[in-house]
Amino acid sequence: GILHEDLRLLLETSMPAKKKKALLGVADAKIGAAILEELGYQCQTGGVVAEILRGIRLHFHALVKGLTAQSASKAQLGLGHSYSRAKVKFNVNRVDNMIIQSISLLDQLDKDINTFSMRVREWYGYHFPELIKIVSENYTYCRLAKFIGNRKELSEESLEGLEEIVMDSAKAQAILEASRSSMGMDISPLDLINIESFSSRVISLSEYRKGLQEYLRSKMSQVAPSLSALIGEVVGARLISHAGSLTNLAKYPASTVQILGAEKALFRALKTRGNTPKYGLIFHSTFIGRAAAKNKGRISRYLANKCTIASRIDCFSEVPTSVFGDKLREQVEERLAFYETGEPPRKNLDVMKEAVVEASEVVAEVKRKQEKKEKKKKKREKEKKREKQRLETLAAAAEENSVLETEENDIEPKKKKKKKQQQEVEAESEQELEAASEPEENGLEEEALPKKKRKLMVEAAIQEEKKKKKKKKKEKARDSEED
Q: Coiled-coil annotation: which residues (predicted)?
């Protein structure tokens, strides 16, 4: 019941009254059927049940222990957030919201560029009015206004630059001649600076529009390749934008797609009981323009039918391909030829069979490419892991070597100290022996000792000193133990 009421709350904000009632009635019936299947209890659905459920939900925090009104409102808020998050995630998967934004921006840019270029024409026309008749395109006119500046400074040397902009030598020559005999007023350098800066802005906007059109083309080839192959990127994007999303467009019947964008005309015709419109946004496609006046309605109905098929294929296919769009386009071309010459077109079943075979081949190739890419990625990841392991082992080995070197460095000074101590002891013993071997005070000289005896004497003296040191250490250890 609580979930049902939450569903009711969500529906209350976004749907008309008739749809709400119908959907809630269906939800009631489904919940009742599920309870009957699982538990075997007969359930009633109707207005009274809905009011009882609403009352329970209103006083639910009073009926359940430990549940407060604040926690119930938090639960409702959490449900609303999760619902919105699910909606956003669904949109992200299709990426059709990017198409909607880009086509809206493209239309706005068209209007703005047209307005700004007319302003440049009027502003620069005071100085060089003849240029408007020679050059009709807005983008080219703005580039020329920026390039020429003061018409009096235009000479034969600047003819090459004019040809590059206009892409026509005759027009460039005409501009040069017109500048020499122009009826325009003189202009100050400050005014020229302002005109040039504004025209450069218009040029940059026009260049950005070209880049945006390329971006839209690439996005349409990714999201809706069949629809863009059938009717073109711009018209397909306008249909998606008007419907709200690709999913909404796929849900529409062909009769709705046919008059999508002509809602005002439709309601006016229904109100006045006049003729309803034959086409809406799809009028901008090339097919309706190529058809004869009597066949425009028929070809628009046929084209709308094919557009709905293409949008559904794009929306629900796992790997989107333009094969179906190309085949549907061929069918529309054949139908146009049939209206003009009477040549019978191919049957829809035969064309779709061919399309399915070609699409399966394309999908298989795409999957193969994806598998190859995944294999390459895995190989790169493995190589990276190996490289990391190798670097880690090298780093560990380097650390071990540094530790060993430090230990050796610590040991070497100890050895040197011991050697120094031994050398000092030997030197002291030798001095004592020499002192003993020197003549005594009474002047009598003793016989000089041989070398072997001297060495023995020195060794004996060293051993005695070592014994003395050991005894001192033992005594110190005992004293420390006693303390």
A: none
